[in-house]
Amino acid sequence: MSSTTSSRRRRSRRTGEMSETSLSSFLSLAEGRRGHFLLESGHHGGLWLDLDGLFTSARRIAAFVNALSARLREHDVEMICGPLLGGAFLAQLVAKELDLPFCFTERQLPAGSAGMYSAQYVLPTAFRSQVNGRRLAIVDDVVSAGSSLRATRAELESHGARVIVAGALLQLGDVGTGTLQREGVPMEALLRDDYALWEPSSCPLCASAVPLTSPATATA
Question: Which residue from 95, 117, 148, 169 could staple onto 83, CB 3.0 to 4.6 Å apart?
Fold first, then answer.
């Protein structure tokens, strides 16, 4: 082992920075909880990742951000956008790495909304003229059903933006990303893992009378 490598590893342990971008190292930053969850898209799932603490220190996830930024750089984008919360934090870090402007969308649930993919994401007024005519990348920390990225893309394009690529630190399954790719938006996922999603009518946990679980009370 070289002295440079040894020094880098000591520094990483001291600062909490991850020096590798493996699935196991990413999951060590997020607390996985098992149960029966209703996801934003309307799907049901059996795993919840608690990502609230993921961005408390930019240094901890610098290796992941740098690796994703390198992939997005190849698409010649002009701006980075992410949905609040985690996607917006990631968008800001990636934009800084690429020396590009960033923006974010905010989640809204229309009154009386129900069903699949009912959540909307709205671009703050200050960003609307900035995205018009630009080539954008949309990013999120973790993508499963892709509800927030799909809604963010629709919102951006309604204001004249052109979404040319999507990115994520972790892609779970292929439900959400498959939809984007079929619509001509390639997905740059740094990491991938299997993940089961079900529509409520075909959920095996519902069929077994397993009650929906709050993430706060789920077991790891």
Answer: 148
